[in-house]
Amino acid sequence: MTLLSIDWFFIIEKVLLISGVLVLSLVVAMYSTWGERKIAAWIQDRLGPNRAGPMGLLQPLADGGKLFFKEEIIPNTSNRFLFILGPSIAMLVACMTSAVIPWGDTLTIAGREISLQVADVNIGILFIFGVVSMGVYGIMLGGWASNNKYSLLASVRAASQIISYELPMGLALIALLMMTGSLSLKDIVEQQRHGLWNVVYQPLGFFIFLVCAFAECNRAPFDLPEAENELNGGYHLEYSSMKLGFFLFAEYINMFISSALMATMYFGGYAFPYMDKLGVDGNILTLLGFLALFIKTLGFIFFFMWVRWTVPRFRYDQLMRLGWKIMIPLALVNMLITGALVLARQH
Amino acid sequence: MQALTNRAKAVDRRPMTFMEKLYIPAIAKGMTITFKHIFHRKATVSFPEKKRDFSPVFRGLHILNRDEEGRERCTACGLCAVACPAEAITMEAAERKPGEENLYREEKYAARYEINMLRCIFCGFCEEACPKDAIYMSETFAPANYQRKGFIYGKDDLLIPDPKEGK
């Protein structure tokens, strides 16, 4: 009978947490579009959106509303099922990654310890890699099912770009894992809480991870699959209405999640300096930690945007050369050095 | 070959050094520049709320002037039409009838006076040519219109209101 007894509090707790994380990533992604336009405008000495609501804060709602009411077009020659599956996978995968990120320490409510992490699996990083590499299916299926040569070419480019950059990303992470000795993101954060942030030990690894994150998120200067001002919209050429919105939105969610990941793995996650000497503990400290992670994440999102409006787009051969001839050897060297140092410390 | 001006600069075609090939310093430099621009004064004018001031010598829409007693100054001499390089001005003259002395200043007046604002180049020659100080250029510009004929401004558009009628 014990097998069948369900801990209802556990389920309610997790459902609340999942919806919280989901709402958080959706809202942040929504306002990233606003932030992106504002930052682009400021960098170019303009004002940016300022008509919808104060400071243009209702702009994302207006954009979303517009996308919902746009005519929904499914090309006659397309594969209907796969055509709809493409953006769905892109969106689903973008939302799934947030499950293993520790958004904070534990909250104690009514004697129950609630971890601010949806699932503390011991293969957290592996899970993220598995899910992220599924994201390329959304792009591939979307581009292929459109039955349009431009979409197909763009999705092939996107797929090869994402696969190429997953390698150095993984290699950079292996160096990190050799140091931490754990695949659980919670463990990695706890280690950084009591020591120095990982970016101090792994500056090169962080840099490689950062560059690869740009490529994985299809962000400038690696936004070749989309290249909105050169191609006809890339792999989402045939998409309209909210299906297009899903593709665009998934990009912003991916950006948010990868920012959170970088903050978690290299910049201490919810840990901040002197957090154990602050004199506060329990729930307040947890909330402060969540705030610290959120600020770090927003900082990375700003960095993403800042780079987008500074650096021009790479050419496709330059992109591939950077990936295979520079990033992978660099990551291997980084791995070698880390391995040597880890060995030397053990003896 | 001798350069036409001394502004020409020879292109540096030396192969890139290692530091240049890294690109990172150049990207960092670019990023500091864009970061500084975030705090620069913005060039945008929020139009309907704020309007940019015209320069004191701005030449806008024409007006036809009246004298102190509210009589039209224009005598339809046609000098403005002759001076107009874009041939935007047409007019028809008429003779003042007895009893109309309170309407027109001289014995001859313009029965019809039209300026095509699509042809006008706002050079101000009409203003200079006028011997009677009858035509002036104001500080507004022609508002948008749906039809071309809306841009042909007649006397009722151009003439300033009679100062006596307001009293």
From TrEMBL, chain A:
Catalytic activity: a quinone + NADH + 5 H(+)(in) = a quinol + NAD(+) + 4 H(+)(out)
Major localisation: membrane
Keyword Secreted: no
Function: NDH-1 shuttles electrons from NADH, via FMN and iron-sulfur (Fe-S) centers, to quinones in the respiratory chain. The immediate electron acceptor for the enzyme in this species is believed to be ubiquinone. Couples the redox reaction to proton translocation (for every two electrons transferred, four hydrogen ions are translocated across the cytoplasmic membrane), and thus conserves the redox energy in a proton gradient. This subunit may bind ubiquinone.
InterPro entries, A to Z: NADH_UbQ_OxRdtase_su1/FPO, NADH_UbQ_OxRdtase_su1_CS
Enzyme Commission designation: 7.1.1.-
Organism field: Chitinophaga polysaccharea
GO CC aspect terms: plasma membrane
Protein name: NADH-quinone oxidoreductase subunit H
Keyword Coiled coil appears in the UniProt entry: no
Membrane topology: Multi-pass membrane protein
PANTHER family: NADH DEHYDROGENASE SUBUNIT 1, NADH-UBIQUINONE OXIDOREDUCTASE CHAIN 1
Complex and partners: NDH-1 is composed of 14 different subunits. Subunits NuoA, H, J, K, L, M, N constitute the membrane sector of the complex.
Spans through the membrane: 6-31, 81-103, 123-144, 165-183, 195-215, 252-272, 284-306, 326-344
GO biological process: aerobic respiration
Keywords: Cell membrane, Membrane, NAD, Quinone, Translocase, Transmembrane, Transmembrane helix, Ubiquinone
MF GO annotations: NADH dehydrogenase activity; oxidoreductase activity, acting on NAD(P)H, quinone or similar compound as acceptor; quinone binding
The organism's place on the tree of life at top rank: Bacteria
Annotated localization: Cell membrane; Membrane
Top EC class for this record: translocase
NCBIfam families hit by this protein: PRK06076.1-2 (NF004741)
Alphabetical list of Pfam families matching this protein: NADHdh
UniProtKB/TrEMBL annotation, chain B:
Name of the protein in its database record: NADH-quinone oxidoreductase subunit I
HAMAP family named in the record: NDH1_NuoI
Family as reported in the entry's similarity comment: Belongs to the complex I 23 kDa subunit family.
Residues holding [4Fe-4S] cluster 2: 84, 120, 123, 126
GO molecular function: 4 iron, 4 sulfur cluster binding; iron ion binding; NADH dehydrogenase (quinone) (non-electrogenic) activity; quinone binding
EC number: 7.1.1.-
NCBIfam families the record matches: NuoI, PRK05888.1-4
EC main group: translocase
UniProt-listed PROSITE patterns: 4FE4S_FER_1, 4FE4S_FER_2
Gene3D superfamilies in the record: 3.30.70.3270
